[in-house]
Amino acid sequence: QVHLEESGGGLAQAGGSLRLSCAASGGNFGSYVNNYAMGWFRQAPGEERRIVASITWSGSVTFYADSVKGRFTISRDNAKNTIYLQMNSLKPEDTAVYYCAVGSQKRSRQPLKSGPEYDYWGQGTQVTVSS
Predict the structure, then answer these.
(1) Are 111 and 83 in contact (CB under 8 A)?
(2) Which of 10, 36, 93, 131 is surrounded by the most beta carbons within 10 Å?
(3) pLDDT digits (tens, 9 = 90+) for 41-77
(4) Are strands 3-7 and 62-64 parallel, antiparallel or unpaired?
(5) In sequence order, what are the residues at sequence separation of 6 or more whose Cβ sits closer than 8 angstroms to the Cβ of residue 66?
(6) Dihedral in degrees, nearest 10, Cα atoms 112, 116, 121, 126
């Protein structure tokens, strides 16, 4: 069983920055998580959960939703079993609960872009951007 814990959420002003972290632990997480794609999703009140960014197991390929392209950067440190989401130029519409997730396909060569492609999810961290 893989446990994911997000951190780094909080309140930011429009134009500001936040950095989210997601640490994986539990079981054989070292050999498990490092071989799988991971991603960040977000869910705003009254909306469905949507992909924000994802990254392959090697970190060589990334995907971004159009709404965050050029502002957010996803990265991973497999030595620390952690992925990050650097969020710059924040906008009020970025306000949401952000979730990290571990993909279901071992060593996928492409980033995974939809919720059903992910097996394990964190509890989420709230990001609020004020105007």
Answers:
(1) no
(2) 36
(3) 999 999 999 999 999 999 999 999 999 999 999 999 9
(4) unpaired
(5) none
(6) 80
Residues with Cβ within 8 Å of residue 107, at least 6 apart in sequence: 35, 36, 57
In this predicted structure, what is the pLDDT of residue 95?
Answer: 98
Structure tokens at 12: 């930011």
- In a 13 Å sphere around the CA of 24, the CA atoms on its Cβ side amount to 30
CA–CA distance, 27 with 93 (Å, rounded to integer): 37
Q: What is the 3-state secondary structure (H, E, C) of the chain?
A: CCEEEEECCEEEECCCCEEEEEEEECCCHHHHHCCEEEEEEEECCCCCCEEEEEECCCCCCEEECCCCCCCEEEEEECCCCEEEEEECCCCHHHCEEEEEEEEEEECCCCCCCCHHHEEEECCCEEEEEEC
